[in-house]
Amino acid sequence: MATKNPRSNGCVLCRRGAKMVLFVTGRCHRACWYCPLSRERKGRDVVYANERRVADPSDIIEEARCMGALGTGITGGEPLLELDRVVGYCTRLKDTFGSEHQIHLYTGMAPDGETLVRLRGLVDEIRLHPPPECWPRILESDYARSAVAARRMGFSIGIEVPALPGIEDLAAALPLLDFLNINELEWGETCAAAMRERGLEPEDGLHNAVKGSRRWAERLCGDPKVHWCSSVFKDSVQLRERLKRTAANTARPFDEVTDDGTVVYGVIEPKCPIDALLPLLEEGEFEDCGDRIEVAWWVLVDRGDELPGTKYIVERYPNGGMIVEVTPL
Ligand code: SF4
Fold first, then answer.
1. pLDDT less than 70: residues of the chain
2. Which neighbouring-strand residues pair with 210?
């Protein structure tokens, strides 16, 4: 679980599931061995708002509305390789939802003065990700210079890195920062081989956490500016709260919303013309989807015999998201 240390504003909203994740590009100038990006995103110039593929900036606004976002976390790849894109999206988000829509930017670069000027007023919080090679000399690095300049310009500034051996070297940078976020190191499909080469292994078969990661960060976690973000917290609190917000805004009257924020409904693929079945259903308990009827799941359980066709129950992420389970009846 997260520590009791004070969090950045971005983290507070994240805990409430109120932060949209805006992935602005999968391109990156670095090649971190622990990079957690999936095959679908790594190295590809694609944009996602949460899990929604973005074809037009209006998709971002639509996704933010669906989940009732109070803020946005900009990530990648390396977002600053697409600075114009970042500026354009942030401008649109602030114009639509107001300046109080909190935006944090995660970057592996050390933004210079010119870049910071372009981000001022659009990005509230910057999370620098210096590479582990520069941690032992962090105060002599461009990241330290960037942190000082950003803080002077009014940004909330922090470092956000995965827990790796040697992370204690970052203690030297704490006086320059508002926060230091440490993410539990996570096992991923594209970095599994590099992890094995280093003798690392997953904590268990259920979670993505890498065994021992917490231990490397333990001493730093006593500092009030340090916030530990566990893999379980990301999966079970952050994601669940976001799904619940989206479900609250988008579920149909007959969708059952679970404690995990998923929605459950029944489906009939009729063997007769759909119009013949509709009079058997009550208003508000179904939707005619053309080739099938989506209906309250309990209608199928209670009265399935009266409704000829292939019937099953679907559990999925809200707003047409990922299917979790299909149970045939
Ligand atoms: S900076 Fe981030 S996106 Fe780029 S390679 Fe490293 S972990 Fe991956």
1. 1-7
2. 202
Q: How far is the CA of 70 from the centre of ligand 1 (A)?
A: 26
Ligand 1 center–CA 216 separation, angstroms: 20
Question: Does 128 sit in the ligand 1 pocket, CB within 6 Å?
Answer: no
Closest CA to 49 of 67, 36, 37, 32: 67
Cα first-last separation, the chain = 39
**Atom 7 of ligand 1, residue of closest alpha carbon:** 35
Q: Which domain holds residue 263?
A: 253-328
Cα 82 to ligand 1 centre (Å): 15
Query: Where does a domain end: 246, 275, 297?
Result: 246
Whether residues 120 and 191 share a domain: the answer is yes
> Residue of the nearest CA to atom 1 in ligand 1?
108
- Measuring CA to CA, how many Å separate 270 from each of 70, 274, 303, 329? 42, 6, 14, 14
Is 200 in contact with 162 (CB distance < 8 Å)? no
CA 140–ligand 1 middle distance (angstroms): 22
CATH code for the domain of 57: 3.20.20.70
pLDDT (0 to 100) of residue 108: 98
Is the CB of 186 inside a 6 Å radius of any atom of ligand 1? Answer: no
Distance of CA 224 to the CA centre of its chain: 25
* C-alpha distances in Å from residue 65, one per residue of 101, 205, 211: 12, 35, 38
For residue 165 the two structure tokens come to 């051996």
Give the model's pLDDT for residue 3.
42
What's the pLDDT at 217?
92
pTM, two decimals, is 0.87
Q: Are 323 and 182 part of one and the same domain? A: no
Per-residue pLDDT of 271-283, as tens digits, reads 888 888 888 888 8
pLDDT on residue 204: 79
